[in-house]
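Data availability (excerpt). The following record was deposited with the supplementary files.
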Amino acid sequence: MSPRQYRAGQRQVAAEQTRTRILEAACELLTGEKGPASFSMDAVAKTAGVARMTVYYQFDSKTGLLEALFDDLAQRGGMARMPAAFMAPSGREALTALLDVLNGFYASGRVALRRLRGLGILDPELDTALQSRSERRRGGLLVVLNRLLADRGAEVDEAGLDELVEMLFMLTSFETFDLLAGPGGESDPVARRVEELILAVLDRRLAAA
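Predicted structure:
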């Protein structure tokens, strides 16, 4: 490795370490006692021990930082395991695995996710970014739903399929988890309750077809 490549590698490592510190500082402030009221680019920079311009250089804006924080929470919360859920042997097992991944993510960053959602109400740009990430879940639910229907040898028309996906989308949302978990709730019981609700909705829809 040439000296130039070595120095470039060192700079890359340093930049990644700085980015991590900034994200950790952002999460600390957002989930702290004062919550969003104490959250600003200046406060994040001070907590991370970096210059304010460094935060802007890494994330461009407050909204960009919050988007990156959401993605970091997803990574730390195990969302990378989602593709494996779709490879489960049956639709029921795929549903179980998907719910375990989602609820593990929700539980691991519950306070931060709740406050990010709250900030999204006040920041249309952040809200749009968070909604676009939630929409990815809709595609996964469609895959699992089609597998559940195939396992049952059942079919529904396009309108019925859209209706079922919308119901599953609501039942697997962070808001539903947060409500069902209650203060300090564990994720596993919630995942199983949601699974029962989804199967009941599906069976009732097929019985009415």
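Summary of structural features: The radius of gyration is 20 Å.
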